[in-house]
Amino acid sequence: MEAKRLKLLFCQTQFKLGGQQKVLLTIAEELGKKHDVTIYYENHSFFDLSKFTLIRPNKIVQLLNLFLVLIKHFFTLNFNKKLIADDWHLRNLKKTLAKKEYDIVILLNPYILFVDEIRKLLKTKKVVCWTHNIFENYVNNCFKDEQKKLFSSMQSADQIVSLERYTAAKWSEYNPNVTIIHNPITIDNDNKRANLKSKKISFVGRIQIDMKGLDYLIQLAKLLDPDITIHIAGSGNSREERQFG
């Protein structure tokens, strides 16, 4: 018997150039061969999104919601930029997705904060939190001022998806339903291998030491032959660039 065709919703804030966005679109495209996939996002579209079913909050709605959020935080004397942004994202989502129905909703940062709100907002059978980064980045960086809400939301999720074993093990302390799904390979090299004659190793990406493994790259560099050079193309915040340099 043919499997049921499911209605799936991915929630992602924007589609600037980024690994999380690229992976989401790769997985959504594959799932779309057997299921009905919708992507909710707010702004920016570096990637070609023409093949997907999209839902976006109206620009006027976004501006109105931003105004209301700023007024709210002004009167509560809470000027934390991250809290303001997350409150704004939630308001946009509520105004756009209210009463819609999906079998599975997949939340990415920052929507992983809003599992309970999503359940009330949408008719859905399952809410999945997809964590694209390591555990500490969520707890100590992205949501350092929202840790209580983060842990509560992750505990409420029906499923948590992690990229690797370490982060999966950390989230399993809060929710036993954790699955590991590694990033798909999105570059086709036609099974070719470098001949290693150039003696150059290239890194292209954001300068973020804990997330991109640059600390490991430094350790490995010490083991290489002295005639091998490493070339870095990318940027990050000034603190990380100074630390890496």
Automatic annotation (TrEMBL):
Q: Does the keyword Transferase apply?
A: yes
Q: Which GO terms describe its molecular function?
A: glycosyltransferase activity
Keyword field: Glycosyltransferase, Transferase
Q: Where would I find the Glycosyltransferase subfamily 4-like N-terminal domain in this sequence?
A: 18-188
Question: What is the name attached to this protein's record?
Answer: Glycosyltransferase
Q: What is the lineage of its organism?
A: Bacteria, Bacillati, Bacillota, Bacilli, Lactobacillales
Q: Name one Pfam family in it.
A: Glyco_transf_4
The EC number of this protein is 2.4.-.-
Question: Which SUPFAM superfamilies does UniProt cross-reference here?
Answer: UDP-Glycosyltransferase/glycogen phosphorylase
Query: By its UniProt entry, which InterPro entries does this protein fall under?
Result: Glyco_trans_4-like_N (IPR028098)
Q: Does the keyword Protein biosynthesis apply?
A: no
EC class: transferase
